[in-house]
Every structure is written in C-alpha cells, then in structure tokens.
Amino acid sequence: MGVEGIGARVVRKEDKRFITGKGRYVDDIKLQGMTHAHFIRSPHAHAKVKGIDSSAALKMPGVVAVLTGQEIVNDKVGNLICGWAITSKDGSPMKMGAWPAMAPETVRFVGQAVAVVIADSKNLARDAAEAVVVDYEELPAVADVHAAIKAGAPQLHPEAPGNQVYDWVLGDEAAVDAAFAKAANVVKLDVTNNRLAPNAMEPRAAIADYDAAEEHFTLYTTSQNPHVARLVLSAFYNIAPEHKLRVIAPDVGGGFGSKIFIYPEEMVALWASKKVGRPVKWTGDRTEAFLTDAHGRDHVTHAEMAFDASNKITGFKVKTYANFGAYMSLFSSSVPTYLYATLLSGQYNIPAIHAEVIGVYTNTTPVDAYRGAGRPEASYLVERLMETAARQLKVDPAALRRANFITQFPHQTPVIMAYDTGDFNASLDAAMKAIDYAGFPARKAQAKSQGKLRGIGVSCYIEACGIAPSKAVGSLGAGVGLWESAEVRVNPVGTIEILTGSHSHGQGHETTFCQLVADRLGVPISQVSIVHGDTDKVQFGMGTYGSRSAAVGLTAILKAMEKMESKAKKIAAHALEASEADIVIENGEFKVTGTDKAIALPMVALAAYTAHNLPDGMEPGLKESAFYDPSNFTFPAGAYICELEVDAGTGKTTFVNFVAADDFGRLINPMIVEGQVHGGLAQGIGQALLEHAIYDANGQPVTASFMDYAMPRAEDLPSFNLSHTTTLCPGNPLGIKGCGEAGAIGASAAVINAITDAIGKNNLEMPATPDRVWRTIHAA
Amino acid sequence: MSTVKLTVNGKAVAVDVEDRTLLVHLLRDHLNLTGTHVGCDTSQCGACVVHVDGKAVKSCTMLAGEAAGTSVTTIEGIAKGDELHPMQAAFRDNHGLQCGYCTPGMIMSAIDIVHRYGGQLDEPTVRQELEGNICRCTGYHNIVKAVLDAAGRMKVSQAAE
Lengths: 780, 161
Hints:
The structure holds two protein chains of two kinds.
Chain A: H1 15-19, E1 35-41, E2 47-53, H2 55-58, E3 63-68, H3 69-74, E4 106-107, E5 113-119, H4 122-131, E6 133-138, H5 145-148, E7 164-171, H6 173-181, E8 185-193, E9 205-211, E10 216-221, H7 226-235, E11 245-248, H8 264-276, E12 280-283, H9 286-292, E13 299-307, E14 313-325, E15 353-361, H10 375-393, H11 397-404, E16 411-412, E17 418-419, H12 424-435, H13 440-449, E18 453-462, H14 470-475, E19 484-490, E20 496-500, H15 509-521, E21 528-531, H16 549-576, E22 583-586, E23 589-592, E24 598-600, H17 601-610, E25 623-628, E26 637-646, E27 653-663, H18 670-689, E28 721-724, H19 742-759, H20 770-778
Parallel strand pairs in A: 1-12, 10-11, 14-15, 20-21, 27-28
Antiparallel strand pairs in A: 1-5, 2-4, 2-6, 3-5, 7-15, 8-13, 9-10, 9-12, 13-14, 16-17, 18-26, 19-20, 19-25, 22-23, 23-24, 26-27
Helix pairs in contact in A: 10-19, 15-16, 16-17, 18-19
Chain B: E1 2-8, E2 11-17, H1 23-30, E3 49-52, E4 55-58, E5 71-73, H2 86-93, H3 103-116, H4 123-129, H5 141-160
Parallel strand pairs in B: 1-5
Antiparallel strand pairs in B: 1-2, 3-4, 3-5
Helix pairs in contact in B: 2-5, 3-5
C-alpha cells in the first residue's frame, strides 16, 4: 500500500490551516463595500402578514434597504422546490404548498422570514430590524402529525387538503396479509423517531456579490454541493443563468445533510445584492440555525412483524407518519420513502414487507435529510423490533438475529434493494467477541449486587450508500442524476491537481483523494492537490452526502486517472522506444518492465506539454476527465453492541462499553474512517439519550438554543471500541462501501435496547433522558 | 465609540470600537484574526475561546472594553513560527478534528486544562473539563486522545525549556 497509499493512516493535509486558525469559512470573508443582512422572522407558527411598516427603520443610520416578501415575489424569484417527485397510492402526485423565499402573505412556522434589512454593519441591520413593524393576524397552528391529520385541524396549504403531502406505499400487501394470517407469533411495536436539529458547528452563511457590468453573481455559501446550488438557483429560482453565477463553498464547518439544501437566505442575498448594488453578507446565529436549518427524523410508526414457529420472520408491515414541517424542503420527500422503506428488510431474510408512509404538513421548521436520512429511522425500527421480538419469544436477541440473517448474496429484498455482498455473521461475531457477550450475565449479576441495573443491547444495521445509480433514482422520482465527475491535471513539472465534484466539510478528501493518486503513481501526496468547492474551477459535481464521496467521487477520480495513465504510458513508451504494454508505473517512474529503462513522471509531463516528440497524432497536454455513474447502491453494514448501567434512583445512564464492528469494504484511510464512525456514533447516541427538537402544541419551538437543546458533550459519551470486517463492494472498482453515516444509523437502537434490557421494560422512547427512564422504571 | 488598548498575540494594538462590541468581534472584524469562531451566541459551544492573561475565556462573553490592558492570545498566536504548539500537533496527529470549526476553541481550552492540572490528566477529567466546548464531528474520542497526548508532550517541552 505504500506509506501514503490506499490503506495507510495518513495524517490529514488540511489540518495545518485548521489548527493554526487559517481556515477560511464564509463568515471570514470580507468584500469591498459589503453590506449586512438581518432577517425579520415570524414569531408566530401560523399567521397572516397584514402589513410591514419599515418607514422608521429606513431613517436609521446605515440602513441601505428593507426588502419584503412581496417584492421578491414581484421580481419573479422562483418559489423553493422539492426535487424528488413522490406519487401517492391513488396515483396522485405529492401535494406541494408554495414556498416563497420570504413570505408575502402567510407565515407557516416560527422563524420564517418576512423581510430583510440591509445595512452597513451587522449591528446596524439588527438595530433597524427592531424598528420594522410587522402586522400579523395569528392563525391556529398545529405541530404534531396526529393532530394535523385530524378533521378540523388548522390547514396549512390550500394545495394539500387535510395537511397530507402524500400517502405512499411500497411492497406486496396481500403477501404480507397472508404471512400474518399464518403466523405463529406476531410482535408489535409503536416507535417515535424524535425530531433532531442538525447543528453543524458553523452556522449557515452567504455572501452574494453582483457585478452589474458583467451581469454576473458570485455566491460564497456554506454548501455541501455548490454545483447543485448553482443548478437550482439558476434553473428554478431565476437568479441568473449558470454561466453568470459562480458558487463557492470554501471551508465549511460541518454539514450532516443540513447544508445540502438551497435555503431562502442565499436566494435573498443574491437578489438583494443586485437590488442594492453592493455585496450582501448574511451569517446566521445559532437560534436562526435551530429555526431554519432543515431538521431531521420526526417519524411516528406502528409496525408488526410475523414469525413462524421456528422464529423465522415471515412478514413485516409498517405504517409511518412523517412530519415534513411547513414546507417540502429540497429532498425531503425521498427521505421517509425511498431512503427509509427500502431498508426495512434490515440484515434479514424477510419474504414479504409492506410499508405505508403518510407525509404530513405541520407548523414547524421543514424536515429533510440529516445524517443517515431515512436509514436511521428504518434501522432503529427494525432493530427495536428484533429486540422486542427476542424478549417476547424468549430467545437470545443475538441468536434471533442470526437465525434470520441473509447469508446468500446477491439478495433481492422485497423492498427494491438488491444487496450485493456482506457477511453479517462476521460483524456480529466481531462485536460479540469485542464486548465479551458470553460474559455479560456474570457482569450483570455483579452490577446487581452493587445496586446497579446493567443492560446490553445489540443493533445490526444495514444502509444503502454510494448514492446513487442515476437511472435507478430517476425511475423513482429523483430530479437529478447522482453520478460524480473528476478531472486529473498533470502539470508540466509533474505535480498533479485533482478536480472533484465532491465537497469536503470535514471528511478529509484533501488527504484520502491524494492517497489514491499516491497509490497508483507512487508519488508523495505533497505533490498532489485537491480542487473542489468552486463552480468556476470544477465543471460539475453532485457534492457530498449519503456516504458517496469515496464510493462515487473517488471512483470518478480513478476513471480519470486510468485515462491519464494510459496516455502517459504511450508518451513514456515513445520516449523509451518500448512497447506501451511493457510500461509499468512505480515510485513516480514509468519503467520498461524487466529492464532498468525508466522515465520519471515530470519528464513525461514535460514531454506532453513541450510536444516536441510525441507519438504521431497525439494531442499535447496531460489532462483527463471522467464522469462515473454507479451501477448499484453500496451496502455498508455492521453490528453495534452497547453495555451500560442505569441508576434506578436517578434514571441516569452510564456507558460501560460501546463496540462497533463495521463492514465498509475497502478503507482508504482507516484513521479517517474511524473518525467518521466516532462522529456518527455520537450523533446516534445523542439522539438516543439527549437530543430532541421540541415544539409546543401551538408550534412554538421550545429548544432553539444550546441552553435548551442537549448537544452531546465529551462527558456524555464513552470512548469507542471499533473494529472492521471486510467484504469488498463488487459494485465499484475500489471495493468501497462508504462510512459517513453508519454510526448515526446503528447506534440509537443499541442504546435503547441496552437501557430497556437494564430496566426490564420494553417501552421507552428517545431521548431516554434520566427523567424519562426514571418514570419508566417506576411506572405501574 | 471607545479606543481599546490591549496586547494581542504579543503585539500592542489600539482599536476603535462601538462600546457594545464583544471581544470576539474585535478580534475577528477589526484585527482580522478569524481563527476565533462564533458558534452559538449563548456561551455554550466554546468555538470562541481565547486566552486572556493566560486563562481560557469565551470571547463572545466579554466586552472588548473589558479586555483593555490585558494580553490576549488567540489560535493564531500559539505556534512559534513554523513550530506548532504541542496541542496543535497532538490534534493533528490524533485526528482530533474534522471540519475544523470548533478546533481553535478546543485547542485553546485544552491548553488551559493542561496548565490547570499541571499535566496530571486522565480521560474522565478531560471529558469533564471539556464541557464548555461542543464538537459535532468527532464524537470527542480523538479530541480526548489528543489532549492526553499533548499533556505528555507539553511536560516534555516544558522540561526542555
């Protein structure tokens, strides 16, 4: 593998700028003549906007403009779109309520912008915002899905009667009914998957700069996918044609899905920059992040699983209500459907599955993809149900899982996905060994003698990553293809630039992507640089989410590398007067195999650019590009086991051990992979124990700062015990499955299974706060 | 408006600021020291931690005027030329950062923790002491490792001085 090649624990190239304070995030950028935006946001969950009086604000110092929702509508800036069409079971398309970037008439969630103040400084804009008077007529609001679908509930959108976005189904209902009719045992479970706030540490920000002479916009923004942002802003929001709009996503301080979407604030900044003739900067504060960053999860589900007399699963039926908030965010429609119900087979051989998902509008912040996006909800449901089944059937939970594992691949599930490979027994074996599963009863007894309730919980997750084969997702309603692009530029002196459509916001692409080049060419990674995050530099790309950057983005780089190497070999063969077939690449040299004849990469590159002596008919230069479209999803899977103690007197949970055995296929940089798992586990455990974005019955958010929303802190988490088992993904040449979301997908169920094991009561919702656990222990 | 005189990273500066200006904004907006970040507005996240007269302080919780006459050190001021501070090196070597946004505050807090404990640290103490710094990327696993590693390195480098 070489010291810097594939599989090496290479320290990250990007770290130096971050540890010395030289990172360059959007809020760090200042432009000449820059103004500052402050949004005026609705304090009501549902209200009519009767009027906006900005006369006093306009007289205040430094105020450049106060712009309203009516003006952005008048200027024909497009409404926000949802890019994945879902069809209800009756054949009707999903019901989309109109979402203007600022509300001209009706606000539907607390925090929705109605106007924006543009001023010379952030403070002056904020001061002036206090002087803008908005006349609201409050309307009844609803925050809970069940309340929203009741007859007589407040209605959000005229386009969506009954607040229903869609009623979507997947699977064979008749086959499931037949399985239940013959079942020896049926296990039932009601589960709420709690709403989460993504909370990347860098708040969202945007700087828009309009050049009137060129009729050209530049947007600096906190984006996971700047090209997708440009496409949507251009094609749907009428900001500017693509060649007149440059989107730059510089260093981005975490995303977790929340920075995939194109938000109203970027649209308003661009539009306002043209209106006021100066650059406009907006940086969100943390409360704005809680109110306006797309939330995650928020499902209410009833599920039933049928077993035969030998404890084999014969059928599975699921009914889920998904809370979308007040509007359909960019990819929201796909999350509780094709990213959720398609994973309901888990790691198990289930002959018949039927899922019904009802999407519901409520007067809350829009909900969209958050780390895992649908797959954590599926995995949590399946793994809570398996644990519940083991308890009801009185069998060991690990043994029940083993008895139902899929062991033959490829495996076609009844819910679209075709698992390509895996070894679920191997990962469960590794996790059980790491935690000494066999020794648990003795440890539990020991803990009991000291007055502690000890529990163990297993979670065997599977996810679909490497998103995604364009044709497949297109047939399911996606509005975009999900390939990736790459370009390899070998400079005349032999240094290499890799241009990628993937975007790094913590994932370490500047290191891992170089490792592939080092592996193939034998050059040090210091001679390679990664260019990303700028639509003027990289032609196109679909960005980073869904654990796709290695499986899809890196494979695109590999394809471009192969083309470049092929040309370089021709040049080397010509220079060495050898046959192209005899050329091998080692340690930065092109060698004639079996001889001592060689030419170094810089000389090949120089030859390509001087073009003095190239093979007849060859174009000068050494630059190749590739688009890679995956042939299937990838299927990372693994087993997580959590051991913990609960204090019956306080309800407090203390971790004893947390083991994770993952199968991600080939690892490029194990150090970075482990970091991704640690972070994912923290988010999964955070959901299980701490985090909950809460609204009161009137749609007022109760948790809109870090004072109220419990973010996991160092003391809330254990150190993790990680290991890997490996089955290479056959779907891409590098054998990569992806590692970005696994922790968040698998961890929650392991924690709740362990707590419910400890307290001996199965019904416990997330987050399992001490208060909630104590009440469950002491409930009659 | 007031003129605030203080020392930042060893250099005497005089800055004209509105009286309501916070120390973090003096550093970021007036001195262009953008390594110090703002992550929450409620003194919870610690992305803005700097050292004021050698002690870790959340610079979003201190008015610029309150820092008059003090000596402030930011993330930009802890390396000696090209030689990283041992805490910076330990964060890099232990993969104690991902997106990098919380990192400057983490490093400044962590240096203060090591100083306060005279380098005598264990994992539970580090986890408890990091309560004022939030990271969303790393799950803290490698941050804790980095701080423990740096505690050893700082002892060695102190002994060498």
